[in-house]
């Protein structure tokens, strides 16, 4: 999980470096690399490219593409730390959507943690005059679609291999972003090509190691490591992009992370009881 978190931080950094290239173009290049690697892996494993639970695989693909597109747009237009922190709302939206999609029950304490997370976002927005409501809204919407994508992944847990689930993102993203690029294309130059390669390969590595971590017997121990990404975002934003956050911005960020971790703790206790 530490490798995964570090790679995602690296990918986010290069996405922000390439803020002169539209988000859909970044996703197009990322998808081409991911699609190639996934197909090679699936062929070696002798699996079906189309998977089994196709309805939820397609939902996972569309939700994931929407979430990442909105996240990249947000990442390119607001501070790295704020963009990443707002994205951390996704586990909470995952839990809320699971009420309707997976028929899961939410404990009273979890609603308190949801309120904590909202408070964190309000603090970030309220004390950051450079953060517009528009990009804040896109960030939250990205988290909602990410929550839908995570629920779709859970729907496919017993029917499809992780690589088949991962495949549906580039499978859907590649043609959509290719058409989009026809109408809005910015020619990469020089180092841009290397950065695009790092984004594509880095995301694939990050997803693979995250999946391995979440499939291990020590999932409850490794999950909190993911939120080291908030610290990465603050440090990279400060030292690389010269982003200056107010103390209250940092407080808001850690309130969001704490709310997500506390909500995760409720699920761990429930699993032990069951």
From TrEMBL:
Q: How does it sit in the membrane?
A: Multi-pass membrane protein
Which PANTHER family does this entry report, sorted A to Z?
A: ACYL-MALONYL CONDENSING ENZYME-RELATED, SOLUTE CARRIER FAMILY 35 MEMBER G1
Which InterPro entries does the annotation name?
EamA_dom, EmrE-like
Mind telling me which Pfam families this protein's record contains?
Answer: EamA (PF00892)
Organism expressing this protein natively: Luteibaculum oceani
One CC-aspect GO term: membrane
What subcellular locations does the record give?
A: Membrane
Supply the name of the protein.
DMT family transporter
Which sequence ranges are marked TM in the entry?
A: 27-45, 57-78, 84-102, 109-127, 133-153, 165-187, 193-210, 222-241, 247-266
Q: Which UniProt keywords apply?
A: Membrane, Transmembrane, Transmembrane helix
Q: Out of the domains of life, which is the source?
A: Bacteria
